[in-house]
Amino acid sequence: MPDETRAPALGVRGSRAAGGDVRRHNLALVLREVVRAEPVSRAAIAGRTGLTRGTVSSLVEELLDAGLLDELAAERGAPGRPASPLQLNRSGPAGLGIEIEVDHVAACVVDLTGAVRAIARLASDHRDRDPALALARVAELARAVRAEAALPVVGAVVAVPGVVGADGVVVRAPNLPRWSGADVGPLLTPLLGGLPVTTANEADLAALAELWFADGPPDAMYVSGGVGVGAGIVLGGRLFRGAGGRAGELGHVVVDADGPACRCGGRGCLEQTAGLEALLRAAGAADLDALPDAPRAAAALDGAAAALGVALAGAVNLLDVPVVVLGGIYSRLGAAWCDDVHARLCERVVHRSDVAVRLSTLAPGGALRAAAASVVRARLRSP
Questions:
Q1: CA 64, CA 69: separation in Å to the nearest integer?
Q2: 177, 201, 295, 322 from 159: Cα distances, Å
Q3: Burial class (CB in 10 A: 0-12, 13-18, 19+), 120
Q4: ∠ CA 250-361-205 to the nearest 5 degrees?
Q5: What phi, psi does 113 have (nearest 5°)?
Q6: Residue 338: pLDDT over 90
Q7: Per-residue pLDDT averaged across 356-365, rounded?
């Protein structure tokens, strides 16, 4: 599973670790200080952690040998012995992110700092196709981005639009019906040359992207709009997945009991009004770019805002989150539409008058970047 916290949870100053774990704990402690304040000197690390300078130097040498840190040229002109600052190694271990959506696949590589070093996307329809097709295509994309990044990739996380169990198996994916029961890791690992692979929900990863890369609030709901509609919930700075990983299935909240049939087997689900295909169909638009000039665009957007407002009001009433972030296709629908959703939500929220609704400021691909970043964050957390 991806690391779910705002900052790399690499240790706690002054905590005790069992004998065999002390060095690993201290390695993580040193790494945490570099992440927080790079470039940083050995002396500064010693001062902030309480470790001796000799211990810090020994740990730094180990981290340099492991390729996790890089030593910069010594600072000149300052009094005393010049220090050689440390930073994360931009050529060190990297993470691979993979996204499998209803209508596309994507892959990217990020370095230890979380910076994207290579990214690629390919249109690909998977609604009623065997998972093997998508896995073959993402393996091809993965080879391309790994070659472009030219970094040592140490693991991969796959983002999928469905419920993912604690064991990494896709429990349910209404818009990808042939993926239910798919154990993506063992299927994809051989195609990636034995690389370890884990799987996570796309909306959960998108919520983590807001937390990690956009300084998102510690309590919020991120809504990912696409063919389906998903939500990632962050409470107290940590991802809330529910007892079985099923939290956030916003797209299958019923907003019209007599509404159209949904792929999940129900009727009147949110995504049948506010999902991409439903929105385009109602507007008479061929694609999202054509939506503003479509003959029924105003009515379609109004209906989507009303339905989303109803679903979000229920979620806010239940979870008491103060912020809702609209991402995916919703981030392209504009501030006026966002304000409309906000107004519809506020009509039905009974216990908060300060709920904020805003558009995501991240470029498309937040979930993909967070998937790759999960790999390197785990490496930094446990060197």
A1: 5
A2: 16, 5, 35, 26
A3: middle
A4: 45
A5: -85, -5
A6: yes
A7: 89
Rounded to whole angstroms, the Cα distance separating 248 from 164 reads 12
- Cα–chain-centroid distance for residue 221? 13
Please, which pLDDT band fits residue 3 given cuts at 50, 70 and 90? low
Q: Which residue has the tokens 């896995």?
A: 135
Cα gap 377→113, rounded to integer Å: 9
**Please, is 258 exposed, middle or buried when counting C-beta atoms within 10 Å of its C-beta (0-12, 13-18, 19+)?**
exposed
* pLDDT at res. 75: 67
Residue type, 335: A
d(CA 211, CA 360): 11
CA quadruple 178, 181, 184, 187: dihedral sign: negative
Q: Which two tokens stand for residue 157?
A: 């996380």
Any idea which residue has 């201290």 for tokens?
A: 26
pLDDT band of residue 99 (cuts 50, 70, 90) is very high
> Which is it for strands 229-235 and 238-240: parallel, antiparallel or unpaired?
antiparallel
How much is the pLDDT for 337? 97
The length of the chain is 383
Residue 160 and residue 34: Cα distance in Å, rounded? 32
**Cα-based distances in Å from 135 to 97, 161, 192, 365, 375:** 13, 15, 10, 19, 19
**Concatenated DSSP letters of 36-65:** HHSSB-HHHHHHHH---HHHHHHHHHHHHH
Q: Is-contact 29 14, C-beta < 8 A? A: no
Supply 381's token pair. 């957390």
| Residue 135: its H or E element | helix 131-149
Asked if 226 contacts 199 with a C-beta cutoff of 8 angstroms, the reply is no
Q: Do 97 and 110 meet the contact criterion of CB atoms below 8 Å apart? A: yes
Tell me how far apart the alpha carbons of residues 72 and 74 are, in angstroms, rounded to a whole number. Answer: 6
Residue reference for tokens 């959506």: 101
Nearest in space to 338 (alpha carbons), one of 364, 312, 319: 312
Residue recorded with tokens 């797209």: 251
Strand partners, 118: 109
Mark out the alpha helices in 163-242 (DSSP H runs): 184-188, 202-213
State the number of CA atoms in the 13 A half-sphere of 116 facing the CB: 19
